[in-house]
Amino acid sequence: MAIGLAEEFLLDPTITYLNHGAYGATPRAVFEEHLRWQRLLEAEPVDFLSRHGTERLAYSRQILADFLGTARDNLVYVTNGTVGLNIVANSLKLGPGDELLTTDHEHGGIDRLFRFSAEKSGFKLVHCPIPVPLTTQEDMLDCFLSSVTDNTRAILISHLSSPSSIVFPVKQICNFAKSRGIMTIVDGSHVPGQLELDLEDIDADFYVGILHKWVCAPKGCAFLYARPQMQCYLDPLVVSWGWEPKVPGPSRFVEFHEWQGSRDISSFLSVPAALDFWSARDWPGIRQACRDMAMAARQEVCKMFGTEPYHPDSPEWHGQITCAPLPAGTDANDLLHRLRHEDGIDVSVDYFANNPRVRISVQAYNDWSDIERLLDALERQVKHAHSRATAQ
């Protein structure tokens, strides 16, 4: 299995990089476009930001909106998914007696955000356990939606879970929630560029996606989507000129959230170049090849250690990123360190539901030799760890 785009990226060739899901990696051509925008910024900062920033951002948002299946002014750029979800969390009008339903598969930083919000505002954050291994999407939906009560006012759900890499049926969840008058907040950090995404088809009230991951835009680039009827509920996280603009524009949502004072917007302006990079190649074919390689890698790890995967092999459950359980008792932190510093492999090793797992991300710069190096290192390192534990 080979995709053949390694030369298009700036990654250190001495490192086997299987951790694209952490921060992404930017192609050389997109990085050069990012530098071009930064040079224009430095050549005339006032022209760049004050005189042309709004129109350039609007153009970039239009290109992004076309890609995501929505209107331009339903989107604002933010620097990362955490910022986008902070805007939503800080705008929630929930209090004592209200419940926000989520899962035990959410990103740790986002879980902390909503626990903080719950403690501050007095609402109840309800974690519905989604046990693995999963069987069917219908069973998952039955499990999750059975936790909805008369007090459920909002749902927070990952589209593709960061800790477990499972793709959840968010469209069905949003449809159910709408029928009950429940607000929906979707953390789609890993989805843009990795899975097909049509925001208006999913029809969440709020959706956050990161662009410096699988779209491979420069770092510090994400978006917040808000359904038009829900935009008025979002307060600005940073109050600035957009709260009382000198000349009101067509979208209060954009005005409230786009201008946050002085900041480098060049990563946002580079999004069209990132989308052009992929559209000039066989992006659907590349994604499928990466998905196949990720699934084959997961199968090999599970076979090696006799562990049970989190979900069936069927394609609705996964993308280019997948998790494989490791043997019970594996010290995930020690294994992570040894893989990186002894074997030159950067891959996510952590715990999910208190059990160790490896999360393998596959992007267009990877080939099967990267997976073979990981498999060899995992077998050797886990065996050595067991020997060390026995000797002690």
UniProtKB/TrEMBL annotation:
This is Aminotransferase class V-fold PLP-dependent enzyme. InterPro entries: Aminotrans_V_dom, PyrdxlP-dep_Trfase, PyrdxlP-dep_Trfase_major, PyrdxlP-dep_Trfase_small. Pfam families: Aminotran_5. Residues 47-374 form the Aminotransferase class V domain. One of its GO terms (molecular function) is transaminase activity. Keywords: Aminotransferase, Pyridoxal phosphate, Transferase. It comes from Hoeflea poritis. Signal peptide: none annotated.
